[in-house]
Design goal:
By secondary structure, this protein is of the alpha+beta class. The protein folds into four domains: about 90 residues, Uridine Diphospho-n-acetylenolpyruvylglucosamine Reductase, domain 2, CATH 3.30.43.10; about 120 residues, Uridine Diphospho-n-acetylenolpyruvylglucosamine Reductase, domain 3 (2-Layer Sandwich); about 110 residues, Alpha-Beta Plaits; about 100 residues, Alpha-Beta Plaits, CATH 3.30.70.2740. It is about 35% helix and about 20% strand. The strands form five sheets. It has a five-stranded antiparallel β-sheet with strand order 5-6-10-8-9. Strand 8 and strand 9 form a beta hairpin. The longest helix is centred in the C-terminal third of the chain and has 21 residues. It is globular. InterPro entries: FAD-bd_oxidored_4_C, FAD-bd_PCMH, FAD-bd_PCMH-like_sf, FAD-bd_PCMH_sub2, FAD-linked_Oxase-like_C, FAD-linked_OxidoTrans_Type4, Oxid_FAD_bind_N, Vanillyl_alc_oxidase_C-sub2.
Length: about 475
């Protein structure tokens, strides 16, 4: 692809219409903006712009459209697949200054935010008004715009769903600078194709999100977690479908291995409540009354004890809550700190296939002589698997990593799964998406991309 290279004339134009402090050009752009959290993809934008309003984004896009300059949108840079890396240079829109919570509408149970609002700030804001924003991706410092762009999921998806389920409306700027409002403060909408839902999960390839209307729910009054040890991974994951069929709906249902917990202990310098078993389930229940919550968690606890659980620990004190949930939240960084280099996949498979899939991952690790720690959202089948380089030579690492990915995605496809449950495709997983979906679906996606962005300036080289 051939794009216009930004020159002094372009920079002078943006200086004339935007605040100088919101522009970084050439050598002024810091190294952090050349990569995301993990993907291994590195490239610098030629010009970094920090817009503050929808109108500024529109102005920037009109110019980029006219000059055929590629544009990449970046939130907090916490992605794992290279979606926010400017692999063709051009303009990077750093949305972190569009970070205002614009409106709380208590009558319609909505909150309107700019895309640079951090997930943890939105969650805290909602709770301070006795409301609850359920999506709970692991990276709390990610932006809402990034969550929407990847349709982030998280631990509460088993009960409450994913980001897509809480986006009612979007204000977007199209590649030619046109501003559009999609959806709104409405619960139902059967008015033609759902363009809003095309934007969600599109990783910045179709339009720039500048505002979002998000659904809130009343804050659950009571919540409790259970930590349940099992002798084997198979025993732990065998009980997951039984819990989900037992008319008990956990808010979260997580699987953790002993080895991953030990990585977290070492990384955090804090002790986990129990490390004597090979496998653990972590469940949370919430509801409007203590009796409702107790009825649900007792049913799940009894079911686990009837199916080879070694014990059931109530995570009901501030100390235990901090210990367990801080450990769970640190798994990615803890594994990353344990090795010289790593890559990841977040496949999603039917929930009743998780044990068989993890067993297969262990066989790959043995065959390729590679350490592959893993954990997952057992309640929704989204598994996080990390390939660790350790002391492998570069050539062997690259060869083994690609073979592991090929085998993992092939097995996920056999099980009726998909390449990504919540991290997206970016530039890192494109080949595997093609192999998973096939040519017809890829061509349909390319057709959608060409209608939104016929000049292919929005985050080119990603997904497709």
């Amino acid at each position: 692809m051939s794009y216009h290279k930004i020159d002094e004339q372009d920079y002078t134009y943006f200086q004339s219409v935007l605040k100088r402090e919101n522009l970084l050009y050439g050598p002024e752009i810091q190294e952090d903006y050349s990569h995301d959290e993990l993907s291994g993809t590195n490239a610098y934008p030629e010009l970094l712009i920090r817009p503050e309003t929808t109108e500024e984004v529109s102005l920037i896009m009109r110019y980029a459209w006219k000059k055929e300059i590629p544009v990449v949108v970046r939130g907090a840079g916490t992605g794992l697949v290279g979606s926010s890396v400017a692999i063709y240079g051009g303009i990077m829109l750093d949305m972190i200054r569009m970070n205002k919570i614009l409106e709380l509408d208590e009558d319609n149970l909505t909150v309107t935010v700019q895309p640079g609002v951090l997930l943890m700030d939105l969650a805290e804001y909602a709770l301070s008004h006795q409301f609850f924003y359920p999506p709970d991706p692991g990276e709390k410092s990610a932006t809402i715009g990034g969550n929407i762009s990847t349709n982030a999921g998280g631990m509460r998806a088993v009960k409450y769903g994913v980001t897509r389920d809480y986006v009612l409306g979007l204000t977007v700027v199209l590649p030619d600078g046109n501003i559009q409002n999609l959806g709104g403060k409405i619960v139902k909408n059967s008015s033609g194709y759902d363009l809003k839902n095309l934007i969600i999960g599109s990783e910045g390839t179709l339009a720039v999100i500048t505002e979002a209307i998000l659904k809130l729910i009343p804050c659950p009054a009571h919540s409790i977690s259970l930590l349940i040890p099992f002798g084997t991974m198979e025993d732990a994951l065998h009980v997951v479908p039984l819990i989900l069929k037992a008319r008990t709906v956990p808010t979260a249902l997580e699987y953790m291995s002993r080895q991953t917990i030990l990585f977290s202990e070492e990384y955090l310098g804090k002790t986990f409540p129990d490390t004597g078993s090979d496998a653990y389930l972590l469940l949370t229940f919430d509801g409007s009354s203590p009796k409702q919550v107790q009825t649900e968690y007792e049913k799940a606890a009894d079911l686990c004890l009837e199916n080879k659980a070694r014990d059931v620990y109530l995570v009901d004190t501030p100390e235990r809550k901090d210990s367990v949930w801080n450990a769970r939240g640190s798994f990615l960084e803890a594994i990353k700190a344990s090795t010289t280099d790593m890559d990841e996949c977040d496949v999603v498979v039917p929930r009743n296939k998780t044990a068989e899939y993890f067993t297969y991952i262990h066989s790959i690790a043995r065959t390729l002589h590679m350490r592959i720690p893993s954990f997952g959202h057992a309640g929704d089948g989204n598994l996080h698997i990390y390939l660790c380089r350790d002391d492998m030579e570069t050539e062997l690492w690259q060869k083994s990593m690609q073979e592991a990915f090929r085998l993992m995605y092939q097995k996920a496809q056999e099980f009726g799964g998909q390449v990504s449950g919540e991290h997206g495709i970016g530039s890192a997983k494109k080949r595997f998406l093609l192999e998973s979906l096939g040519d017809t679906q890829i061509q349909l996606m390319k057709g959608i991309k060409s209608v939104f962005d016929p000049k292919n300036i929005m985050n080119p080289g990603k997904i497709l």
